[in-house]
């Protein structure tokens, strides 16, 4: 193991759990928790600003979950993005494979103890792939073509949207007004209108009602 101190960022929508992980890692040599967040936009912004070495990533959160955080950070930082280690209550194959396909380096469940978690953080920081027992089998099956989880279908219209346009789309699908979206994302109403116009054009929808139906059909929201 390296003598380097690895900087860690925590992503989880439960504040009590984040506090517990902070406490568990505080006494571990070579690890420093530099920040945490409980939703997708704050997580992406915090990671981009603080540039940690490792992100401990919850899988299920409002607004797209861990995959949305992964994609947002990767869009912003590219090859400079940190290493992601999923830390989830779920051990479902669909969650494991989707998160690894999105770019996570490992996946452990929340039954892990503090010492094991610290070791997992160090290992992914140093280039290893780390999984809780039996979860590695899901990933191996996926890459050898034996996984029951299908590859995600290509959706050119959805893939054409920027990260910010996706955020606006999700809030539109939930019924937010332009003003409420502006307040949620800390941008102007005019900027929201511009993003919404771009979303309508790229998805080839004629109005907001049609866009909402389009988003619901794709389980966006």
UniProtKB/TrEMBL annotation:
Keywords of this protein's UniProt record, alphabetized? DNA-binding, Phosphoprotein
Q: Check the record and name the SUPFAM superfamilies matching this protein.
A: C-terminal effector domain of the bipartite response regulators (SSF46894), CheY-like (SSF52172)
Entry's Gene Ontology molecular function annotations: DNA binding
The 4-aspartylphosphate modification is found at 58
BP-aspect Gene Ontology terms: phosphorelay signal transduction system; regulation of DNA-templated transcription
> Locate the Response regulatory domain: which residues?
7-125
What InterPro entries does the annotation carry?
A: CheY-like_superfamily (IPR011006), NreC/VraR/RcsB-like_REC (IPR058245), Sig_transdc_resp-reg_C-effctor (IPR016032), Sig_transdc_resp-reg_receiver (IPR001789), Tscrpt_reg_LuxR_C (IPR000792), WalR-like (IPR039420)
Q: Kindly indicate whether the keyword Phosphoprotein belongs to this entry.
A: yes
Record keywords: Cell division included? Answer: no
- Can you give the residue ranges of the HTH luxR-type domain? 154-219
Q: Which domain of life is it from?
A: Bacteria
> What name appears for this protein in its UniProt entry?
Regulatory protein LuxR
Which species is the source of this protein? Answer: Gordonia neofelifaecis NRRL B-59395
């Amino acid at each position: 193991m390296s003598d380097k101190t690895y900087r860690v960022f925590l992503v989880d929508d439960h504040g009590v759990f984040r506090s517990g992980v902070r406490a568990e890692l505080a006494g571990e040599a070579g690890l420093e928790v530099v920040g945490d967040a409980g939703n997708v936009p704050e997580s992406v912004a915090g990671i981009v600003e603080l540039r940690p070495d490792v992100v401990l990533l919850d899988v299920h959160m409002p607004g797209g979950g861990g995959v949305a955080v992964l994609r947002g950070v990767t869009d912003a930082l590219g090859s400079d993005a940190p290493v992601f280690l999923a830390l989830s209550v779920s051990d479902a194959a669909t969650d494991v494979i989707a998160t690894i396909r999105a770019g996570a380096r490992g996946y452990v469940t929340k039954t892990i103890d503090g010492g094991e978690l610290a070791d997992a953080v160090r290992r992914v920081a140093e280039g290893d792939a780390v999984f809780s027992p039996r979860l590695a089998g899901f990933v191996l099956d996926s890459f050898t073509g034996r996984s029951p989880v299908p590859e995600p279908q290509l959706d050119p219209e959805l893939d054409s949207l920027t990260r910010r346009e996706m955020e606006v789309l999700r809030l539109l699908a939930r019924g937010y007004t332009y003003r409420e979206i502006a307040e949620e994302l800390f941008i102007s109403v005019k900027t929201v209108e511009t993003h919404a116009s771009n979303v309508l054009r790229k998805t080839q929808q004629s109005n907001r009602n049609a866009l909402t139906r389009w988003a619901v059909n794709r389980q966006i929201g």
